[in-house]
Write a structure and sequence with these properties.
- With 327 residues, the chain is α/β, with parallel strands linked by helices.
- It has helices at residues 8-11, 29-42, 71-82, 103-111, 127-134, 152-166, 184-196, 225-229, 253-260, 264-267, 290-293, 300-323; strands at 60-65, 86-89, 117-122, 140-146, 173-177, 200-204, 220-222, 234-237, 275-277.
- α5 (127-134) links the parallel β3 and β4 (140-146).
- The longest helix is centred in the C-terminal third of the chain and has 24 residues, at 300-323.
- It starts with 7 loop residues before the first helix and ends with a helix.
- The protein binds phosphoric acid mono(formamide)ester (CP).
- Residues 69-72, 145, 154, 279-281 line the site of phosphoric acid mono(formamide)ester.
Length: 327
């Protein structure tokens, strides 16, 4: 599988409409803004007594999650249902892949059931891109997280949350704290923030949890927490991804919390109106203190709620792009 960022030709129709959503890289600011604006129109659907609109009636969306998930899988399912689509949740552990069926054969069979969308989470970087290059035309692929590479809908729901609370991106300083090395979320967030015009994106982590080419991401690097947090408007914590660590990159979780854990006291270095975000799942007492996670400045559960509307936007835009006749 390729870990090259997908070109805009793979993700967009010749007319510039979204047809697959695989990564933020190479997507124009106008398209990211269109996703946010489309999502804004869907937020109120969740407040209605009848929580759906008929946009994807008759369409079938398939959740293909080869890795565990709570938030992403359920909010994609809810998003599809709120768009009136039919939803299949593949139980990968009990599928014929456990009898040796290849990924591509599995996809061929799901295509034969007239599926319109595959939402894919996979441990291998490049998996969603690989699938997008092998599915028949008219099936849209949405990346729900691939290895360390990208988690573009998470980044877009984070952008939605920031725009909601801060009004826009111009002049904003955003600090991303924690395990950047293993984080597909951080990569997608940095790409989205820089494309949307944030003034400064910072990453804060010990050297062992920073990628070797971290400067190439376009973020300012800090190895100490307090100078990295100084006057930040948005502070995002990342989960320590123990399952992806092949060697001892940290002395202990206690030591990580002592040096990089977020709490009310440390947040005093950030802007007084700074918001606190976390993509989840959280390790309370490791990357973030419970008091801060549940406190007034935390928007963590709002990120989850906005995620439904953002995923509705991406799904409806991909299907519309596939149906535009431009693919
Ligand atoms: N943020 C996120 O991707 O969470 P899940 O692993 O629960 O989907």
């Amino acid at each position: 599988m390729t870990t090259e960022p997908p070109s805009s030709e793979v993700q967009l129709t010749p007319g510039g409409r979204l047809r697959h959503f695989l990564a933020i890289e190479n997507l124009p600011r106008s398209l990211l803004t269109e996703i946010l604006d489309t999502a804004a129109g869907f937020v109120s659907v969740g407040d209605r007594s009848v929580k759906n609109v008929p946009l994807l009636r008759g369409k079938t969306s398939v959740n293909l999650f080869f890795e565990p998930s709570t938030r992403t899988r359920t909010t994609f399912e809810l998003a599809a249902k709120r768009l009136s689509a039919d939803v299949l949740n593949m139980d990968i552990a009990h599928s014929a892949t456990s009898k040796g069926e290849s990924l591509l054969d599995m996809l061929r069979n799901l295509e034969a059931m007239a599926s319109d969308l595959f939402v894919v989470r996979h441990a291998d970087s490049g998996a969603a891109h690989f699938i997008a290059r092998h599915v028949t035309p008219n099936v849209a692929i949405i990346n729900a997280g691939d290895g360390r590479h990208a988690h573009p809908t998470q980044a877009m729901l984070d952008m939605y949350t920031i725009r909601h609370y801060k009004g826009g991106f111009e002049g904003l300083t955003v600090a991303i704290v924690g395990d950047v090395l293993h984080s597909r979320v951080a990569r997608s967030q940095i790409n989205a923030l820089l494309t949307l015009g944030a003034e400064e994106v910072r990453v804060i982590a010990p050297r062992t949890l920073l990628p070797a080419d971290v400067e190439a991401l376009g973020a300012r690097v800090f190895t100490e927490l307090e100078p990295g947090l100084r006057d930040a408007d948005v502070v995002m914590a990342l989960r320590l991804q123990r399952e992806r660590m092949q060697s001892a990159l940290l002395p202990s979780e206690g030591e990580f919390y002592r040096l990089y854990g977020l709490n009310e006291d440390r947040l005093r270095h950030a802007h007084p109106q700074a918001i606190v975000m976390h993509p989840g799942p959280m390790n309370r007492g490791v990357e973030i203190d419970s008091g801060l996670a549940d406190g007034e400045r935390s928007v963590i559960l709002h990120q989850v709620t906005f995620g439904i509307a953002v995923r509705m936007a991406v799904m409806s835009m991909c299907v519309s792009g596939q149906e535009s006749g431009e693919v």
